[in-house]
Specification:
Alpha-Beta Plaits; four-stranded mixed beta sheet; 24% helix; 18% strand
């Protein structure tokens, strides 16, 4: 059980009012730092993630690389992606740990219409609450990194939680704990940025690795992320398993909140006002009298005059 004093909620998906308790405590942004230049592709982080979250191990899929499977899955949140790259006449592996980026402006949360299905904590972690998920899948399309995955059996969506249960207790994520080379670090966003910039300077220097294009991946197009990378070549992040260079939240999944939703609420309010105004000025709708059934013509036999016994006269 997480310590609620650590995980203060900053934003809630589909929530119409203010976030309960927001701003009552000062939150510290956390961050996972990944140095791909020191990753050896051992996949210890993959194993630790599966074990901690108590998911069964999946069958691997061979695709002519050392990659476990093509993409992450609903019960496989952490995947080392392998890509071949030729540099200076030699072949090298570009390996990247793929998982949720925990964006400062998460597209999944912006697209989600279900109240409380996605929450963003003050420390930057974006967490899914499956009990509130309605299975619409909008979060999948709203994510520029293709992270959330749908479970066909439960009709719910799942992704990496950055081990919010561990972080809430003051522990680091399970994948960080298992890394043998030190390419994974966890701490405050400020400390991790300082560590990353120092590593970039080392990689760029002639005395170091002499990689002039080495750089930090922390895209500001989504307000930055709480999972950052140090790359050999930050000018081409697509080389690292399709990492987008300029991730964007699709406008179609955000326009409903700032335009379509308020417009719909305004029209609903105007409709209620029109009904109330009609009631005041015209009054309630009066029930209409039921129409009399049509009179059927009498048959010919009933039209003949008949003679009464008392008067002997014919009656029509």
């Amino acid at each position: 059980m997480s310590d609620v004093r650590t995980l203060q909620i900053q934003a809630i998906s589909g929530h119409p009012g203010p976030v309960p308790g927001r701003g009552t405590q000062r939150g510290v942004e956390v961050c996972k730092y990944i140095d791909v230049t020191t990753c050896i592709g051992c996949k210890a982080c993959e194993v630790a993630c599966v074990e901690w979250n108590k998911y069964p191990f999946r069958e691997t899929t061979f695709d002519n690389t050392y990659q476990t499977m093509p993409t992450t899955e609903w019960n496989y949140w952490n995947l080392i992606k392998f890509a071949e790259y030729e540099r200076d006449g030699s072949l090298m592996w570009l390996m990247r740990k793929d998982q949720c980026m925990h964006c400062a402006e998460p597209g999944c949360l912006a697209a989600c219409p279900a109240d409380g299905a996605i929450v963003q904590y003050e420390n930057g972690i974006v967490d899914f609450q499956q009990e509130n998920c309605i299975g619409c899948g909008y979060c999948i399309s709203g994510c520029p990194f293709d992270i959330p995955k749908f479970n066909q059996e439960t009709k719910k969506v799942y992704k990496c939680t950055l081990c919010s249960d561990r972080v809430g207790e003051g522990l680091e994520p399970a994948c960080i704990k298992s890394c043998p080379t030190g390419c994974l670090h966890f701490g405050t966003k400020e400390d991790m940025l300082e560590l990353a910039h120092a590593r970039v300077a080392q990689l760029r220097s002639p005395e170091g690795s002499n990689l002039p294009n080495a750089g930090l991946y922390d895209p500001q197009s989504i307000g930055g992320t709480h999972v950052i990378y140090v790359l050999h070549d930050a000018t081409q992040p697509e080389l690292y398993g399709g990492l987008p260079s300029n991730p964007q939240i699709p406008p179609s999944y955000t326009v409903w909140k700032w335009l379509a939703k308020p417009t719909g609420l305004l029209l609903a309010f105007l409709g209620i006002f029109a009904v109330f105004f009609h009631r005041i000025t015209v009054g309630p709708k009066q029930p209409q009298p039921e129409a009399a059934p049509p009179v059927e013509p009498l048959p010919e036999a009933a039209r003949e005059p008949r003679r009464t016994e008392a008067t002997g006269k014919e009656e029509p």
